[in-house]
């Protein structure tokens, strides 16, 4: 009973846009404890259910990818402050699969975005330090949903440039932005084609001072490369496109934001926004089913059976194929 | 009855080392047809079962990774010919996940290894053009088992430098070789740490003519980098190590082979060979179970249910989490 009241309070706090309530709610969805999981699902249900003020709220979800060194934190700081100055509320989340190994966190140090983290219209959430990719995806997805319920206008989902996490972010966001540093033309190959194909807008950062000419060349190179990609139905004329920005001087940030808004508006009008979100929901449904199926292997009698058959395989008394067939038959 | 005789004939052909029978057997394990799968499992069981001449045969399985341009085909050609000249029988297989998309095949063109492909002691098998990663892993694993049953002394498993396929190959081989081209010192970062950690021996190719000094520097750089890695129990003193070779002149190939043999012998004596193979068998058992579980989602009533729930998620009448919970409950 106390728990129910507590859950209702937390939901009300999140729906009212209270940042402390939001932080507590995210901690709840990140928890591995079974009772916390139940409470997290109840909270999400409450916020999205009929009668909730928060139901149906949608933020513009922007995925932001870029390898270390391209100036991602500085970009988020400048871009975020520009948006909050316009009265918009901005949340920043991180997807960092590598933190699972290093124990570190790409957003662990909020001082990287000192001003933004003190801005009352902003909410910055570091990546949790312990999680597997499946867990990271679920946690981030639910954190995004909580930020939307809390009425944030823009949710920035940051990731580092390693294949798998980009895929997760692409399935979470409405727009996918690739942030690059100025480089020699032949470094074009450093960006994987798959990541290029996800990008809606490529931003070449550090277009200031002595690096500006290089940034313009890099932008032109990528603009050319983007034209070689297959046309996607979700793009209006001229997209995907490449632009120059400087997170340090702020140059180009306004133009980049205008492009993002224009693309988002076009997709909303043409129905691509809704169909993308519907497709993402279907993806996450199937992913949850897959994760749940695999997780069940490591509990109760299935786990005992897996261990017993695994021991026979290790001992050489059963081939992997025969053992797998036996395991699958026992589960069917 | 005809099928049984045929299966027995095929098993006998493989066990006798007949290359055409081996090629037919690999085609069988690559097939997606259900009756072929049954026949493939029967064939593998026959070859590995008691009473089979082929039972217990072990090749030295060498995983070979290297990005395009390092001279992998030339290396395989020279290295393979050196081994066959010593009377050894050599099989070459490829793991190429990208071929699933491009429809191409890294070993599709046997003319890349013209002499080796005509050598009666060699067997070269291109990567199948259509497969998903799970399918590639199974197909390659079974093809390796068939090559062993056919009495090959060395099985080379080639892959390109993209993370996921390296992991598959590392779980299939006794030794993992990383082939590199000479490069500037700062290109060291181009090799992912995870792949470095898999390597038993790093070979810097093209150590001939004007590139030799660069190759020696690259070798020294990698030798230094390898020393920074955590010591692994499966390595004797001095391993993992970096060497220079030239696939064109043949320089260093004999020394590289001697190091491979010495490492393999040490691992056999110390039990690391057997425990690695046992661990791999356990890995493949669990992987087969996982693939089987996930595949079952897309058949029969499970598929219908997945589609029905997925449609409700797309329509917005059910959240992904609630739909997943319902799906999982129906499977339990």
UniProtKB/TrEMBL annotation, chains A, B:
<dbReference type="GO" id="GO:0005737">
    <property type="term" value="C:cytoplasm"/>
</dbReference>
<dbReference type="Pfam" id="PF03308">
    <property type="entry name" value="MeaB"/>
</dbReference>
<dbReference type="InterPro" id="IPR027417">
    <property type="entry name" value="P-loop_NTPase"/>
</dbReference>
<keyword id="KW-0378">Hydrolase</keyword>
<dbReference type="InterPro" id="IPR005129">
    <property type="entry name" value="GTPase_ArgK"/>
</dbReference>
<protein>
    <submittedName>
        <fullName>Methylmalonyl Co-A mutase-associated GTPase MeaB</fullName>
        <ecNumber>3.6.5.-</ecNumber>
    </submittedName>
</protein>
<dbReference type="GO" id="GO:0005525">
    <property type="term" value="F:GTP binding"/>
</dbReference>
<comment type="similarity">
    <text>Belongs to the SIMIBI class G3E GTPase family. ArgK/MeaB subfamily.</text>
</comment>
<dbReference type="GO" id="GO:0003924">
    <property type="term" value="F:GTPase activity"/>
</dbReference>
